């Protein structure tokens, strides 16, 4: 298993090199919307500029580290029929996607961390006061968030066996999650009803929850509930994924890819 | 001029036929347009849940701004965006040669050949939003307001076209990136809100270097009757300047294409 | 119609790098290589001529053709086509010429060819009446009627090529550049396209410059050929003369009831011995004598005298590398 992963990661690394320019452009582009939102909030609450700066820069980082594009890949592969190639091999295709995620996210990390370091020298707001415990919790929550977002994207992608416009559906979810995951505004600034809803949906645990840990605005109890929610959704997603995968294979065999 | 209008109509007709060929559903496109506007308005509402002004603009003002943003975005998606990837394909496959042998301006051809008429819905929704904003504000623009608004909106269209064309022209060299339009949208996003929000060097950058301020803000201010002649003239001047630049850049790219490819 | 004098073209080719580091470095310092694609070519073509343009891949055929069409700027030399300097790209020039590339399509993929025709009508400002007339003629000659309303993507390669030709001829160009018009087509369709080109040329006196890999296209259509290799013009003249000078021999195909045991070398160069059939390569001037010898001395069913295949002529032309004129 480990060897297979090394081989996969190598391959995905070479593949990424071919698209490095596009990758960097996309990454830079993905920062614009959060930065604009940050400007809006610092205008609304000029006195709390610093905490908004920290919030949105962390948001950029978390958003990149948890980003998921698998639904587009799967949609294309299923539509063009190349997905069958993966099914034929004695290795679950999800591992290809996981390996690809690892490669790209290591790249994001390598690019983003030094940028943060340099920015922190000039912008005091970017030197968060984080304890060791908080850091461990943040990394755990970030990992959980990335897993949730990945699985959600993969689940939507597998729906491609039945539905033709999965990317459109996924796009709708992405937009809804703009509000409920804390990307438009920190959840504490949302109308209470939206905040309540967000606690029960998976989107908050993908992005907002790790950021809130860094901001240190939650009580211990709230953090505990947060981890509970994230774990619960992870279990749900895993079950759905397994079930969809089996049903999808059957469907694929019936129509003949 | 009339000849180009006729050619444009022909482009529109073929794209209409092409679209019908795929029978893309009316309903789906309609829904996605409404969804887009709805989300944009919701975002503004979330901001105004916490405040009553944004960069000096009240809720209704921002709605008008958003309406103009939506209209312009619709125009881009209608006429410009579908052509971005096509140009890349022409350069990659060498079919640009056919366009260059035709007695029609090549810049005109590559920027308007493909149209996605569904996006005209976005333009309509944008206009609707502008009107809704005006109603909310209980403001009836005078004839002069509307005239100034039209002039500056025309300038922003020219400006957008020029900036877009410059970006598109880079595909002669950067052929690895499939969809450069992404870069344009990143910039265009900054025009969604009042430019007064931005501070310091960012504001200078967005006013003079990448003239975002003239794209949505100037028309919105004009419509609300707060126009001044100098700004309007300036917006015409800047639009003309950028159009000239994009034209020069396109020519330059063609020259290097015609002397470098094999 | 076409005059070319001392035409040359060289390209600066950027040597690309692979890795991250090299890619970054190449942003600042690029390495170039100069490729001379066309070297000092001169020729002229009269109105109404069909001229074949021959040469191996990368010889400079397409480069020359693109310069004639105004797509490439020559490095040095002079071109006039129909009185225009092509690279100035005047609209009047563009209206009098047309370009068809066998490997590239100008038809719009998802919609019927008729739609592309209508776009071209608007672009070339073709009058309604003239358009209908021309279209009717082309539809008849190319048998397009059933194809006009089908989406382009559903057409076969041959059907698509016929539509490409029609799209290129709607504005009645005086000059037609054909770059590999029959590439990838089956023999039957190739034949159809050739017949069309010949007929169209006869009826409209269109000047046609044609490049092709298929000798069949050239032998069927062109009396005159230009041969280009390594960017230089090696031959300009009659196709028949070329055959005679380059291959001063003919192929003698003799059918026997049973192949006799003779020393073939006394008669000519042995090419092949098959069951009941022998092929000999015999110098042109000896052909009458050798054939009468066979007819006299052996029992012979049949005897054919053939010119060597065009491919061989051309191969020789390239091998000898000399200027023949």
Summarize this entry quickly.
Chain B: InterPro entries: ABC-2_transporter-like. The complex is a heterotrimer of chains A (257), B (262) and C (325). With 257 residues, chain A is mostly helical.
Note the main attributes of this structure.
heterotrimer; A: 257 residues; mainly alpha; 80% helix; 0% strand; globular; B: 262 residues; 74% helix; ABC-2_transporter-like (chain B)
Structure commentary:
The complex is a heterotrimer of chains A (257), B (262) and C (325). By secondary structure, chain A is an all-alpha fold. Helices cover 80% and strands 0% of the residues of chain A. Chain A has helices at residues 2-18, 20-44, 49-66, 70-80, 83-88, 94-122, 132-158, 166-180, 192-200, 203-206, 208-215, 220-255. Chain B has helices spanning 2-22, 26-50, 59-93, 96-100, 106-112, 120-137, 143-169, 181-188, 200-209, 217-223, 229-260. Chain B is mainly α and 262 residues long. Chain B has one domain. Chain C has 325 residues and is an alpha/beta fold. Chain C folds into two domains: 2-243, 3-Layer(aba) Sandwich (Rossmann fold); 248-306, Alpha-Beta Plaits (2-Layer Sandwich), CATH 3.30.70. In chain C, strands 5-6-7-3-8-9 form a six-stranded mixed β-sheet, sandwiched between helices. In chain C, helix 4 (113-123) packs parallel to helix 6 (157-169) and helix 5 (128-142) packs antiparallel against helix 6 (157-169). Chains B and C meet through helix 1, helix 4 and helix 11 of B and helix 2, helix 3, strand 5 and helix 4 of C.
**Order of SSEs of chain A, N→C?**
HHHHHHHHHHHH
The dominant shape of chain C is globular
Question: What percentage of amino acids of chain C are in beta strands?
Answer: 25-35%
Q: How far from one another are the termini of chain A?
A: 27 Å
Taking the alpha carbons of the first and last residues of chain C, their distance comes to 22 Å
Shape of chain A: globular
Task: Tell me the helix content of chain C.
Answer: 25-40%
Task: State the CATH topology of the largest domain in chain C.
Answer: Rossmann fold
Low-confidence parts of chain A: none
Provide the residue-averaged pLDDT of chain A: 88
Greatest interface and its participating residue counts: B-C, 28 and 40 residues
By secondary-structure content and strand pairing, the structural class of chain A works out as mainly alpha
**Which percent band covers the strand fraction of chain A?**
under 5%
- List the total number of helices of chain C: 11
- The side-by-side strand order for the widest beta sheet of chain C comes to 5-6-7-3-8-9
* Annotation, overall tally of beta strands of chain C: 13
User: Total number of helical segments of chain A?
Assistant: 12
- The string of secondary-structure elements of chain C, in order, is EHEEHEHEHHHEHEHEEHEEEHEH
């Amino acid at each position: 298993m480990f060897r297979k992963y090394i081989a996969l990661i190598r391959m995905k690394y070479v593949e990424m090199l071919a698209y490095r320019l596009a990758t960097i452009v996309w990454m830079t582009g993905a920062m614009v919307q959060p930065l604009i939102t940050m400007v809006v909030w610092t205008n609304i609450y000029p006195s709390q500029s610093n905490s908004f700066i920290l919030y949105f820069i962390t948001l950029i980082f978390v958003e990149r580290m948890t980003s998921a594009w698998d639904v587009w890949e799967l949609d294309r592969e299923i539509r063009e029929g190349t997905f069958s190639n993966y099914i034929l091999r004695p290795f679950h295709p999800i591992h290809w996607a996981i390996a690809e995620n690892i490669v790209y996210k290591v790249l994001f990390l390598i690019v983003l961390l030094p940028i943060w370091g340099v920015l922190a020298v000039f912008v005091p707001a970017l030197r968060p006061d984080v304890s060791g415990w908080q850091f461990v919790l943040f990394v755990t929550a970030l990992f959980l968030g990335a897993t949730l977002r990945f699985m959600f994207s993969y689940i939507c992608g597998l729906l491609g066996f039945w539905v033709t416009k999965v990317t459109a559906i996924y796009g709708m979810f992405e937009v809804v999650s703009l509000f409920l995951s804390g990307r438009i505004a920190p959840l504490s600034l949302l109308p209470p009803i939206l905040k309540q809803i967000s606690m029960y949906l998976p989107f908050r645990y993908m992005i907002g929850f790790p950021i809130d840990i860094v901001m240190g605005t939650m009580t211990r109890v709230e953090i505990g509930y947060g981890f509970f929610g994230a774990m619960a959704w992870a279990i749900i997603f895993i079950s759905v994924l397994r079930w969809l995968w089996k049903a999808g294979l059957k469907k694929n065999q019936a129509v003949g890819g | 001029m009339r000849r180009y209008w006729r050619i444009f109509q022909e482009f529109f007709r073929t794209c209409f036929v092409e679209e019908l060929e795929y029978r893309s559903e009316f309903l789906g496109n309609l829904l996605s347009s409404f969804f887009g506007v709805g989300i944009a308005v919701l975002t503004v509402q979330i901001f105004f849940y916490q405040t009553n002004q944004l960069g000096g603009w009240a809720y209704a003002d921002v709605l008008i701004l958003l309406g103009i943003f939506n209209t312009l975005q619709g125009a881009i998606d209608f006429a410009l965006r579908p052509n971005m990837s096509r140009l890349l394909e022409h350069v990659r496959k060498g079919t640009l040669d056919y366009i260059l042998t035709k007695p029609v301006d090549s810049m005109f051809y590559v920027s308007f050949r493909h149209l996605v008429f569904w996006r005209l819905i976005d333009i309509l929704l944008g206009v609707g939003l502008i009107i809704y904003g005006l109603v909310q504000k209980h403001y009836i623009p005078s004839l002069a307001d509307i005239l100034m608004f039209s002039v500056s909106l025309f300038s922003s269209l020219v400006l957008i076209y020029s900036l877009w064309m410059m970006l598109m022209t880079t595909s002669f060299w950067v052929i690895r990136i499939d969809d450069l339009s992404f870069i344009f949208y990143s910039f265009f996003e900054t025009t969604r809100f009042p430019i007064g929000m931005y501070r310091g060097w960012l504001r200078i950058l967005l006013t003079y270097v990448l003239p975002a301020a003239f794209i949505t803000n100037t028309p919105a201010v004009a419509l609300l009757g707060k126009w001044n002649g100098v700004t309007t003239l300036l917006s015409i001047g800047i639009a003309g300047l950028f159009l000239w630049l994009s034209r020069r850049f396109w020519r330059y790219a063609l020259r290097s294409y015609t002397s470098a490819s094999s | 119609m076409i005059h070319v004098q001392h035409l040359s073209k060289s390209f600066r080719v950027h040597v690309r790098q692979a890795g991250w580091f090299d890619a970054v470095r190449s942003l600042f310092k690029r390495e170039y290589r100069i490729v001379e694609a066309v070297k000092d070519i001169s020729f002229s073509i009269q109105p109404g001529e069909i001229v074949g343009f021959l040469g191996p891949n990368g010889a400079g055929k397409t480069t020359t053709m693109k310069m004639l069409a105004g797509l490439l700027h020559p490095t040095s030399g002079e071109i006039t086509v129909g009185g225009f300097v092509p690279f100035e790209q005047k609209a009047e020039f563009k209206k009098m010429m047309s370009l068809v590339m066998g490997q590239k399509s100008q038809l719009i993929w998802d919609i019927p060819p008729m739609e592309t025709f209508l776009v071209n009508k608007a672009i070339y400002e073709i009058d309604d009446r003239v358009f209908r007339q021309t279209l009717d003629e082309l539809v008849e000659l190319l048998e397009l009627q059933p194809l006009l309303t089908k989406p382009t993507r559903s057409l076969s390669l041959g059907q698509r090529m016929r539509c490409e030709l029609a799209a290129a001829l709607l504005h009645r160009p005086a000059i037609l550049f054909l770059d590999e018009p029959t590439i990838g087509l089956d023999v039957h369709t190739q034949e159809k396209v050739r017949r069309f080109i010949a007929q169209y040329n006869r009826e409209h006196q269109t000047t046609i410059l044609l490049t092709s890999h298929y000798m069949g296209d050239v032998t069927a259509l062109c009396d005159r050929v230009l041969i280009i290799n390594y960017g230089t013009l090696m031959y300009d003249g009659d196709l028949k003369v070329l055959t005679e000078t380059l291959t001063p021999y003919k192929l003698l195909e003799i059918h026997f009831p049973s192949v006799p045991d003779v020393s073939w070398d006394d008669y000519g160069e042995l090419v092949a011995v098959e069951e009941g059939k022998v092929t000999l390569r015999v110098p042109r001037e000896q052909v009458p004598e050798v054939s009468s010898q066979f007819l006299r001395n052996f029992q012979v069913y049949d005897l054919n005298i053939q010119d060597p295949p065009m491919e061989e002529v051309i191969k020789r032309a390239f091998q000898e590398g000399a200027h023949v004129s």
